[in-house]
Write a structure and sequence with these properties.
This protein has about 280 residues and is an all-alpha fold. The chain contains 17 helices and no strands.
Amino acid sequence: MAEQTQIRPPGGAAEPPAASAKPDSAVIRDALGVGVAVGLSGFAFGVTSAGAGLSLLQTCALSLLVFTGASQLALVGALAAGGNPLTAAAAALFLGARNAFYGLRLSAVLGYRATAKPFAAHWVIDETSAVALAQPDRRTARLGFTVTGLTLYVLWNLTTLVGALGAGALGDTDAWGLDAAGPAVFLALLAPKLTTTVERLTAGLAVVLVMVTLPLLPTGVPVLISALAAPAVLLAQGRRERTRETDGTERPGTGPDDTAPQDGSAQIRRTTGEDRA
């Protein structure tokens, strides 16, 4: 076998070998799996939107122009429940605000030019962010983002159209379980990333907050309330660490006064020995 030569920069050590990139086929497979699974849940939105009284044009325009499933479902769900349109729109807007935070992170990961960012921003949602951030380098992140976004956008809009047209034939979407496809896929992507105790506690507390507030608050608000789980867990973790540090410094035999010699004899002996050496 031929030997591989490491290139050493002038005056520097050899650079570590680059991490092996993820195969394009694996990235495309994962992206298509997410895009197809979540894209099919557009049926639920189309049926729910038609049942809420929105026209076919309004339903399709929401999917084409808004394209953020949770916010769309929150909007039509609130309207179907008889909510005020302005309140429903505000809840959908607050729920969709999380995409702005995804965009801040993806901007550095994807590295698109300024002219391309407005077009890419339309595809910044939960699923595209999860697939892109799971990749080891920029090239595969762009590939995963593009394939997921394109697949999901096309399928979501097609199934929205079919769902709105066939709302009467499909009947109750709860019986089909289509509204659970998106959260199920996102949970499957998120669960392997919960590797620390703090992350698991944060996720568990967020679930508890949603379950407690869901029967009490308007649609979309429980999701916003669940975001309080992160600062709550981090605050508790910070207090716990400070308590440990305080206990460690005040434990007998570990403080500076306990470890310091009572007289200068030890210091004198050490200095004298060093001088002789």
